[in-house]
Amino acid sequence: MTGLHLSAALTDAGWHPAAWRDPAARPGALFTARYWTDLAAEAERGLLDFLTIEDSLGLQSSDPTAPDDRTDQVRGRLDAVLTAALLAPATSRIGLVPTTITTHTEPFHVSIGIASLDYASRGRAGWRPQVAGGPLSDAAHFGRRTFPEFDLPWFATPDGAAFSAELFGEAADFVEVVRRLWDSWEDDAEIRDAATGRFLDRGKLHYIDFEGPHFSVRGPSITPRPPQGQPLVTALAHDVGPYEFAARGADVVYVTPHSRPDAVTIIAQVREAERTVGRAGEPLKVFADLVVFLDEAPGAAFARKARLDELDGAALASDAEIFAGTPGELADLLLDWRGAGLDGFRLRPGVLPLDLEGITRGLVPVLQGRGAFRTAYDAATLRGHLGLSRPANRYATA
């Protein structure tokens, strides 16, 4: 068995809100370059396909719909795209996939940021567009938009569901604009002929002329077409609407099953979403998210998680399945769930760097021993790692 894909989701001190209090954590280093380059080097050491970097437009919160006043959890973070740019020259093969929030940012800025990352990494850039998690509080940072008030949780109300659909519609337009801007330069638009004084073939730069309910963007980009043509676009999705969002514009979708039968159901919903939106070309790669605590000693990872739960004052809750066990037990689970039709997994380390090392130094060797994971990188680009072709430019003429 070969071809299993693995990625790691990096955030703060780890995905447990009390992770920074674990003896193995490095809370004093969270805002240093060395902390992030060390994590990236470890992920690359484990031959992972890519790493993702979380971001937001508001402080982290224990309440998914509003700010909180807690002072015993990590607050504050670095910009994800800039962090990925820092990691580009410090790595050589692993893909770098920062998150940006579509609700309050401009697609032109994001397009040139991710394109620049693709140049800096020589073809290893990806992107995760995300709608704002707390639109009311986030909007107050910008002062350009107002949002309706809902009884919390807003997304569980009928009006809130309609508002959520509006945000995802905006995000879909955002992704379309970004993709068109990446194509607004043909691959051979730059001539760079000093003898004739011709640097550019202006006929190979294109206006994208996007007009929609949310954006009006003329183009072209200021950044030439990225090395991958189209950097990898990924999306986290939990329901039919977000599955359709991913099917319209993403290459990879992260899903959150809690069992193998659940994974079968979700994959069927993803494929139906592809049919609903009329997706053409390569089907979505489907990755399952899991929060992981790993230790070679049986029971040790569970005990460590229980201690963090006690420190935080509550058992860890997550949209994704939470696993605490040995690398061998996790390998069993991944290979079982893979049989449901999953292409890979995005693992969320409970504590950084400890549980990332559990993945790279514990899980990966077990999977390699079972012939289920690569023993060396065989591609130089992120699209190459996932077996995705380099897309043709939509504006180029034959």
Task: Give the tags.
13 strands; 11 helices; 16% strand; two-stranded antiparallel sheet; 398 residues; 8-stranded parallel β-barrel
Could you explain the architecture of this structure?
- The chain has 398 residues and is an alpha/beta fold.
- Helix content is 35%, strand content 16%.
- The protein has helices at residues 33-45, 80-87, 107-120, 135-139, 158-183, 240-249, 260-277, 300-312, 327-338, 354-369, 382-385, and strands at residues 5-10, 50-53, 95-101, 126-130, 190-193, 198-200, 210-211, 216-217, 232-236, 252-255, 285-294, 321-325, 344-349.
- Helix 3 (107-120) links the parallel strand 3 and strand 4.
- Helix 1 packs parallel to helix 10, helix 3 packs across helix 5 (158-183) and helix 9 crosses helix 10.
Order of helices and strands: EHEHEHEHHEEEEEHEHEHEHEHH
| Cα distance spanning the termini | 40 Å
Number of DSSP helical runs: 11
Helix/strand/pairing category: alpha/beta
Q: Could you give the order of strands across the largest sheet?
A: 1-2-3-4-9-10-11-13
Main sheet overview: 8 strands, parallel, barrel
**Global geometry:** globular
Secondary structure: helix percent: 25-40%
Compute the average pLDDT: 94
Strand segment count: 13
Provide the gyration radius in Å. 21 Å
Low-confidence runs (pLDDT<50, min 5 residues)? Answer: none
Nutshell version of this structure?
With 398 residues, the protein is of the alpha/beta class. It has helices at 33-45, 80-87, 107-120, 135-139, 158-183, 240-249, 260-277, 300-312, 327-338, 354-369, 382-385, and strands at 5-10, 50-53, 95-101, 126-130, 190-193, 198-200, 210-211, 216-217, 232-236, 252-255, 285-294, 321-325, 344-349.
